[in-house]
Amino acid sequence: MSLLRNPLLLLGLNLSAIASSTYLLRSHHIYNLEEHEARMDELEGTLRGHIGLIEEALDRLEGKGTEADRNKKMNEYYGKRGRDEKSK
Length: 88
Prior knowledge:
mainly alpha; 3 helices; 85% helix
């Protein structure tokens, strides 16, 4: 009997091919998820910074708050991250 006609060998080859491709796709998917999360964290920090700058400019135009209040707001916006909020 030829090796290519052995059903157990063919079944084993099929199962090992499916398992290895599943493992490869899973690891690639996990890598992409981590990269996406890093990009979103960076984007969130950028948006928080821009919102802080806009609010600071608005406070200056309206004459509200002191310099200490503005510095406190800026530290809150720049220092705060979504990941830090989720862990609490």
